[in-house]
């Protein structure tokens, strides 16, 4: 599945953008991504379909929710440094013609067994534990070509000398312009450019209070979209059927769609913990861990001087391991009394790209129809299997 990440393929890089931009937070409050503590429900929750009900020839991942299959494949891709066709037959993902696919199934079963029998069911061993970005795990210690550099000592700041989480969050809100200014923004429209290596593409981001958002990348082969309509998150890209997001992806994009996120940050997490003072470049930052029960923590890095959010690190959980994303925010500018990051860089194990905003308008009309997921094509696309 690494084909959905590789920067050498323009169309597929845009698909990655659609997956990751949901966690960018290109708004005045620069939102992070995790589960909302009390996400609004539009209708009674339906029983999710399992992988074997949606995809063909499912064997190892039977009983796993179908919306977790693609994130799990992304985790394998990042762990082994491969593309979809390393294991799968192109345009016939259900076939078992490749030995690599058979081996992958055995490796997943081995991992599940090791965690169950050795680590009391806790997921301590993953694909990445052994592969570390390579198809062939290294079983012999590597001989270094030069003397190792001594580790850089980072002076630990005593916990009693660190500021409280409430103080840092309050400083962040004030640095953006204050709670009242943030809550006066009813909509935001941004235009910019995505840069990944030598590839560039125009980007449009539309957000509307309280919780609607869509980001669109315009490519020669068609548009790629990431959206949250107030209830459901969805993704579309050229040559692929539009799909509803997994639960973890929906949590992220729902949070990004919160136009007043910074003002409501304290209510969206159950607890916070200031862990350390570190450096990003030449800037001192405070690191806060934010927690919601049953969800991976989110790490926020606040500039010690300005109070602005300069980095966040989040994890999206999958049946095989956690997919990390790091987002760095920069180029904050005043936009109608609220500071907005005009540039952010998204980094994942597969690579990185940067989005630079060039034009921004606030409190302008945005029609609700822009956020609605388009209907599926008459004939569903072929299904994949792990």
Could you write a compact summary of the structure shown?
The chain has 386 residues and is α+β, with helices and mostly antiparallel strands. It has two domains: 9-38 and 161-371, Lipoprotein localisation LolA/LolB/LppX (outer membrane lipoprotein receptor (LolB), chain A, Clam), CATH 2.50.20.10; 51-131, Photosynthetic Reaction Center, subunit C, domain 2 (Orthogonal Bundle), CATH 1.10.468. The protein has nine helices and 13 strands.
Radius of gyration over alpha carbons?
A: 21 Å
Q: On the 0-100 scale, what is the average pLDDT?
A: 82
Oligomer category: single chain
SSE topology string:
HHHHHHHEEEEEEHHEEEEEEE
What does this structure look like?
The chain is an alpha+beta fold and 386 residues long. It has 2 domains: 9-38 and 161-371, outer membrane lipoprotein receptor (LolB), chain A (Clam), CATH 2.50.20; 51-131, Photosynthetic Reaction Center, subunit C, domain 2 (Orthogonal Bundle), CATH 1.10.468.10. The protein is built from 9 helices and 13 strands. It has helices at residues 10-20, 51-54, 69-80, 99-118, 127-131, 165-176, 179-183, 247-257, 261-268, and strands spanning 187-196, 199-208, 212-219, 222-228, 233-237, 240-244, 271-280, 283-291, 298-303, 309-317, 322-335, 338-348, 351-362. The protein has a 13-stranded antiparallel beta sheet. α6 (165-176) runs antiparallel to α9. The model is unreliable at 1-44 and 380-384 (pLDDT under 50).
């Amino acid at each position: 599945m690494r084909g959905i990440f590789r920067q050498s393929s323009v169309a597929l890089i845009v698909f990655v953008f659609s997956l990751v931009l949901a966690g960018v937070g290109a708004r005045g409050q620069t939102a992070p991504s995790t589960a909302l503590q009390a996400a609004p429900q539009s209708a009674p929750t339906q029983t999710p379909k399992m992988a074997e009900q949606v995809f063909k020839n499912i064997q190892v991942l039977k009983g796993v929710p179908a919306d977790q299959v693609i994130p799990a494949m992304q985790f394998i891709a990042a762990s082994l440094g491969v593309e979809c066709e390393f294991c799968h037959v192109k345009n016939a993902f259900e076939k078992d013609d490749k030995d690599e696919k058979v081996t992958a199934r055995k490796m997943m079963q081995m991992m599940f067994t090791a965690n169950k029998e050795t680590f009391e069911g806790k997921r301590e061993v993953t694909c990445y534990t052994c592969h570390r970005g390579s198809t062939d795990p290294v079983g012999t210690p590597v001989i270094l070509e030069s003397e190792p550099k001594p580790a850089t000592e980072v002076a630990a700041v005593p916990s009693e000398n660190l500021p409280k989480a409430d103080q840092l969050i309050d400083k962040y809100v004030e640095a953006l312009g204050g709670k009242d200014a943030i809550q006066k923004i009813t909509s935001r429209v941004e235009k910019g450019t995505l840069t990944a290596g030598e590839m560039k593409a125009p980007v449009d981001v539309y957000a509307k209070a309280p919780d609607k958002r869509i980001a669109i990348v315009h490519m020669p082969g068609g548009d790629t979209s990431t959206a949250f309509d107030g209830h459901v998150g969805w993704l579309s890209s050229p040559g692929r059927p539009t799909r509803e997001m997994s639960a973890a992806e929906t949590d992220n994009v729902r949070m990004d769609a919160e136009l007043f996120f910074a003002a409501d940050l304290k209510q969206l997490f159950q607890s916070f913990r200031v862990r350390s003072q570190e450096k990003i470049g030449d800037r001192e930052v405070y690191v806060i861990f934010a927690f919601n029960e049953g969800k991976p923590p989110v790490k926020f890095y606040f500039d010690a001087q300005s109070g602005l959010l300069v980095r966040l690190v989040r994890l999206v959980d999958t049946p095989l391991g956690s997919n990390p994303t790091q987002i760095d925010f920069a180029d904050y500018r005043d936009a109608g009394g609220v500071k907005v990051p005009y540039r952010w860089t998204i980094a994942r194990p597969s690579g990185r790209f940067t989005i630079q905003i060039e034009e921004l308008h606030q409190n302008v009309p945005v029609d609700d129809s822009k956020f609605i997921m388009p209907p599926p094509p008459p004939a569903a696309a072929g299904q994949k299997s792990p």
